[in-house]
Design brief:
This protein is mainly beta. The protein has one helix and eleven strands, in the order H-E-E-E-E-E-E-E-E-E-E-E. The protein has a six-stranded antiparallel beta sheet, with no helix packed on it. Strands 9-8-7-2-11 form a five-stranded antiparallel beta sheet, with no helix packed on it. Keywords: Lectin.
Length: 157
Amino acid sequence: DGHLNNSLGSPVQADVYFPRLIVPFCGHIKGGMRPGKKILVMGIVDLNPESFGISLTCGESEDPPADVAIELKAVFTERQFVRNSCIAGEWGEEQSSIPYFPFIPDQPFRVEILCEHPRFRIFVDGHQLFDFYHRIETLSAIDTIKINGDLQLTKLG
């Protein structure tokens, strides 16, 4: 009958309501980015994390690589949350200053990437952590989100 059953014979409904967000994840941003648009990434950091990354890119192409409007990378060994962009195969200047490192192993988090006219504003668990000024002029071309590394995704919006 197409239903998954657990050992008691009742349907397992979690997969119906919460489709698995598999890491590495690649998804389409409908209509691309524009000022006022917000991307929400919720997840749980793995127990023994090394790093995880969230990238907003212009398409999914691997060869040649798609332009990366912003790549956010949480590096646990250095307690850094670095960001950068890659345009025409050239990585820009990496930015790494943050007031504090917001991610804790085995704990949930909420990252919001708010697109404004001159920049992205990055919030973690409701606190603004930093701004990243656009290096890609055509915001609507930023239409793909990629997530990888030591985390479980619980929600994207």
